[in-house]
Amino acid sequence: MNRLSIVNRLSIFVGMLCLAVLTLERAEGGTEVVASQSLTVQPAGPRTGDAGKNYLNVEGKDNEKFASFGVLVFDLPKEIQDRNPKGLQLSLVQTTPKFAKDGSIKLFLAPDLDPKAKLKFDAEAADGVGKQIEPLEALGTGEFKMPEWGKTQTFTLTLSDAVRDRIAKGGKLCLIVVPADAKVAATYYGADEDAKDRRPKLTFDLP
Fold first, then answer.
1. What is the largest CA-CA distance in the chain?
2. How many domains does the chain have?
3. Residue 111 is part of a domain; what is its CATH number?
4. What is the pTM of this model?
5. Is the predicted pLDDT of residue 189 greater than 50, yes or no?
């Protein structure tokens, strides 16, 4: 075997190895879908202005007029609709305003929401949502602790049959993030944040 043939074989091998590594990285990273819309729903209704678009706050009723639950909307691509995910994670990037407070939050899958619906934080309901949005499918819980600017908090979501059926339906996927205690003030970037890597994101682990 001459020297040129050896070099050619090595080049082909290196190319195949690089391709395998790239494929593995895509498989391990999962399929990511960035939120197309986010809302911070307060007692007066959805928070307005740039703050309402760029940030997602989830605050318990002790925060009074700033008490809020969050709404996240994701547009599902067809390649997800046609497959049965093995896992699902939500990633939220923390912000660090002075009013942020440690505490617990809960996550739910909601039915498609009417964009004209007049949502408000209901102080009489433990989660602020009450009966405004029904039914809600539990996705999991989490803790907001010692906020660190730019830190990504990842929640592993429950893939029940109802959640899988909703994903298979395609279209929009609506998530609700609510306070699980009265004092929490969880603060994250929203769907209109300028930096795409700081927006809310779902990661689907596909077979």
1. 82
2. 1
3. 2.60.120
4. 0.84
5. yes
